[in-house]
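Protein 1 of 2
SEQ + STRUCT:
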Amino acid sequence: MGATEAHGPHLPLGTDTIIAIAMARAGAERLTGQGMTAVLLTPCSYSAAPFAAGFPGTLSVSASTVRELVLDVARELTRLQFMALAIANAHLDPAHLGALNEAAERARDEGLLPVAVPDLTRRATASKLGDEFKSGACHAGRYEGSIVMAEHPELVREEIRKSLTPNPASLSTAIRAGLSTFEQAGGPRAYFGWPADASTEEGEATVGVLGEILAEAVHEAIALRGTS
């Protein structure tokens, strides 16, 4: 699950989808190595993205659309007798995260296959993804920029990226304060963090960590279903 939204003047609108695809691939490889069979579904590149709605290129759909899409996919995978639906999610807008969590809860209520949604914003998980991610200033910064550089370097505007000054404003702090847009949160150019510090090497390492997080979520979801 990704999104189509502004990621500063240096990263593509599809940044979240690029990261999600990399996370799904890495998670599938890890699960395969553990003796499971993982099937990669096509990515979803549209979601609720109200935080970035003020910037050109952002296409936001309703949270209810996201919830119902995930539920319908879960129903189909249940019909086809899959063990679980793992969501490799790289979009952290609160509206989007809420929709995914609602879908997972509804799936449980309906008796569908477990929907594994690893929450990257949880402190224990965020600590695995570097200091910038933990700070909450991680939209189109070092964390995301590094992964896009590793996956699709041709889509990064390198001269612009290297020229961008740090923006340490924390999105997580802004969200807790009730703010609802990038502009209000202190991101007038739709980026937060340290984009000039991004590197291909960090991106490759981070994709591996994301794959581990996704695989762990799958095992936890299946184990919980077995005890329910």
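Protein 2 of 2
SEQ + STRUCT:
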Amino acid sequence: MEFKDYYQILGVPPDASQEVIKGTYRRLARKYHPDVSKEAGAEQRFKDVGEAYEVLKDPEKRAAYDQLAQGRQAGQEFRPPPGWEADFRFSGGGYTHVGDFSDFFEALFGRAGQAPRSGWREARLKGDDQQVRIDIGLEEAFHGATRAISLTLPVIDDHGRLTRKQRDLNVKIPRGITEGQRIRLAGQGEPGLGGGPAGDLYLEVAFAPHPMFRAEKRDIYLDLPVTPWEAALGSRVTVPTLGGKVDVKVPPGSQTGRKLRLKGRGLPGKPPGDQYVILAIMAPPAGTRAARELYERMAREMPMNPRQSLGV
């Protein structure tokens, strides 16, 4: 019996992470799957890849294999040492690859739950999950909505080849969703092979630019222009929010950049976000003689150096 280098079969290093091993297996299994590949030798490659993954995906099997693999190379004559498996416990069932495993595999792991022998062409492979980004409006995130979207997603055609096709979907946008969150559409991802289930489709939410508001998680920000007298004397002004207009008190002596908090006026949630109003003082133009004279009078009667903190 020849020793099999499972790392070499998958084309990964011995210290590869589980994520790398899983990703490599899925890529190779799809490449050589009977529903897709017409290459010579694809059947054997598919079986080898499935067997290698069956060992390397399982921490106990992998640890046992690594112990036996020390100093050995693929193709060398091999017999497992007597009693080598005493330090390991192998759980049966859950085989990824359906078909006949090699004598090498069965010599090591065959007693720990036999793999089904239904033939390699019955192997089922779950489709990959897909992720795409969708832009939504802040109003949709605030109120919730149902959106019709068109996406170009992978499908298996009548000849078993992976291609892409436009699909129209109705997507429910949850009320209070935040940027970066994902909406899961079960079974709407890449199709499975050999009758395997389809993967899931994940829609990553991004907020489209808004003419007034910007969002930071659940909090909403609005730059609010105010006149010099509204800021200096104090006033009540009307402010737009995603839930409608509200009246807000501007404290006397406010300056540009002052932040006013509207509790609970952000995106819904537990707890909801807040809306922050950032004041921006807008000076009217000196477009008439009277306006210019008024500014000159203000300069005389209310002298100030707004750059004093800068040392100038």
